[in-house]
């Protein structure tokens, strides 16, 4: 993995408290906070702009699937 890849992976693991949510659904990260944290950690802005949205999309799908599974598939 490249240095930038490792940095983005580390950043993504730190964003658990920066979720944007609606009742019953995760809609994404607070990307303003994510970019600020990444900047404070010295991560290249271009790497964040390129990789965070891709990771965010997968995270949203997986968390929403997990929430659907744990609430018995109830509609939102």
What do these coordinates show?
There is one protein chain. The protein is mainly alpha-helical. The chain has one domain (3-70). The protein is built from 3 helices and 2 strands. The protein has helices at 3-13, 31-40, 45-70; strands at residues 19-22, 25-29. Strands 1-2 form a two-stranded antiparallel sheet. Helix 2 packs across helix 3. The longest helix is centred in the last third of the chain and has 26 residues, at 45-70. The chain is elongated, with a radius of gyration of 14 Å. The mean pLDDT is 91.
What portion of residues is helical?
55-70%
Summarize the helix and strand pattern as letters. Answer: HEEHH
Give a short account of the largest sheet.
2 strands, antiparallel
Poorly predicted tracts of residues: none
Write the layout of secondary structure elements.
Blueprint: H1 3-13, E1 19-22, E2 25-29, H2 31-40, H3 45-70
Antiparallel strand pairs: 1-2
Q: What features would you highlight for this structure?
A:
elongated; two-stranded antiparallel sheet; 3 helices; single chain; 12% strand; 76 residues; mainly alpha
Describe, in short, the structure shown:
The protein is mainly α. The protein has helices spanning 3-13, 31-40, 45-70, and strands at 19-22, 25-29.
């Amino acid at each position: 993995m490249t240095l930038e890849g490792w940095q983005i992976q580390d950043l993504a693991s730190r964003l658990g408290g920066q979720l944007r949510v609606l009742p019953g659904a995760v809609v994404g990260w607070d990307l303003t906070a994510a970019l600020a944290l990444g900047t404070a950690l010295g991560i290249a802005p271009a790497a964040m702009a390129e990789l965070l949205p891709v990771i965010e999309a997968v995270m949203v799908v997986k968390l929403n699937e997990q929430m659907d599974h744990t609430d018995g598939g109830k509609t939102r």
